[in-house]
Amino acid sequence: MSIPRAVALLASGLAVFATPAAGQTPPSVWTALEMGQRTVSGAASGDQWYYTPPVHITFSTPFNSAPAVRLAMGRVEDNSRRSGSFYGAFTSNLTTTGFDLTVRYAYSNSFSGRVDWIAIDEKPAIPPPQLARTGTVTLGPAVRPTGDSWQLVSRTHVTFDGPFSSPPSIWLGLRGIDDRLNRSGTYYEVRAAAVTETGFDLEVYGNHATNFAAAWIDWIAAGGSSTEPPSVQSGAHLMSPAVRPAAAGRWSEVYRGHVEFDRPFAQLPAVAVTGRSTDHVTALQIGNFRYAEPSNITTTGFDLVVYAADSDSYNMDLFDWIAVEGVAHQKTMPLFAAGAFAAGRDVPEASAHGGNAVLVLPSYAEDAETIALALETSNKQAILSAHHVFGGPRDQWEAGWAHTLTWAAPLTSRGLVAAIYVVDEPLWNGISEAQRDEAIAMVQVAGYKTMIAEWIDKARNDTTGPHRVDYYGVTAYDFGSFGPTLQQALTEYVNHPQWNFVVGQGFNLQSRNGTPQQQFAAWVDMARDTRKAGVVFWVWRWPDGTGIANQDYLAAYDAAMP
């Protein structure tokens, strides 16, 4: 599949370049995005870098000056003699009319791939101005084997938050990958398919995977629109060569750097990032295990945080980033989310403690602005419960869901909602599988990631639920008189990789399972060591007097938070 080159004309800075009113002079130039793809291949290489012969890319029309060109590896098929990723894409001879593209690789028996590129700079202003939108698609932890042939791993439909006037061009950048292989090398492909004015299907393919467990893909769409266009800035950030090991099993931070924008944005931008020149040795386990996250995004810059797992060393990478202002700034789930269930009134208190997320149990009587401010101030993300809607009568769902979104506007407008907790223990509470799946679909159509948790006895027999929801947890509590012990619950989670989000016990802890600190740590360590999407504890404070804050578990909870 190839995306034809297209030009997306975007307003520079804060100016609005729509059709000028009578008496106004139209702008002579504005920022342009032009994007395209190029397939590359090469023969066997030695243990040194091998460079493919340069191929020339010609822009559809000249830029006013040599543009910035940002690259992403959209497809890699590297039959390597060494476990890890050893490849990169580079430009040279950049002019106003085009550039030369070269790919390098090492340790390869054979190599082929696809480079997605975007050129960004000023062009003569040819109306109408056009629009850019951006976002991230997350493939949450799951079991996705491929065998020894290229197979579709995942298809996710992306709906734009506003339509284009014609199908836009799409650029895709792989932000992170957790792909466990049966042979050395790198084997993935990301595609944009079925592109329309309102959305597209993001497809992920893999090969030789014992488990293509997770992936994170940033996307940018550029095409026709009559709305006000955003401003765009871009750059490259080098993670300089160094020895950066990462432990077996769990994600570890291996690098943190700061990126400063050339000029401040007026509004918080969305940032896409991808590694495009990777030297990463993963001999502890065969496969590819890396993730880059733009963190602490402000109008003046952001922190680039890089994680790896199962690595002898993540030696270096060159990250290209693109910041787009004027689009919905939707937060994604952290690489490893950690926090607690908390009633709305308790969110300010819970936000001030450990972790990076709060599962918010809202009440319409509470002030959503106060909740949003507490989350924003503490740099926490929200998983918003909608159990009060979808745990109720079916004929009230539409009205209840609309009411919830209206109430939650201070959170959603700031991009603080990473997922919706659709319904709690649905099968245990007498909700049918069909109704549960209908509720999940209703939330997903609205553009949100979804999460549910099921009581363990029901979850053992629930073979369909994990495949329809993004994050699936299980409640497995030790009540002393019944329920699994802590060790039994942890073992069940380890043995069920499809239970990809841990719900931990944070109330009435039984002494037979150890001290509170040992118990909180055991839940978190199990979730991290098995690379679950996260862990959230029930509950911060509850009217019956149980919970992390009620029962003086705060020190143990904070100590366990990563």
Q: How would you explain this protein's 3D organization?
A:
This protein has 562 residues and is an alpha+beta fold. The chain folds into two domains: 6-324, no CATH class; 337-560, Glycosidases (TIM Barrel), CATH 3.20.20. The protein is 15% helix and 43% strand. It contains eleven helices and 29 strands. Strands 3, 4, 6, 7, 15, 17, 18 and 21 form an eight-stranded antiparallel beta sheet that branches. The chain has an eight-stranded parallel beta sheet with strand order 27-26-25-24-23-22-29-28. Strand 12 and strand 13 form a beta hairpin. The longest helix is centred in the last third of the chain and has 14 residues, at 516-529. It is globular, with a radius of gyration of 24 Å.
What is the alpha-carbon Rg in Å? 24 Å
| Strand residues, percent | 35-45%
Quaternary class: single chain
Distance between the termini: 41 Å
Helix content: 10-25%
- Give start-end ranges of low-pLDDT stretches: 1-24
Q: What is the domain tally? A: 2
Mean pLDDT: 91
- Please count the helical segments: 11
Number of beta strands = 29
User: Based on helices, strands and strand pairing, what is the structural class?
Assistant: alpha+beta
Principal-axes shape call? globular
| Biggest sheet statistics | 8 strands, antiparallel
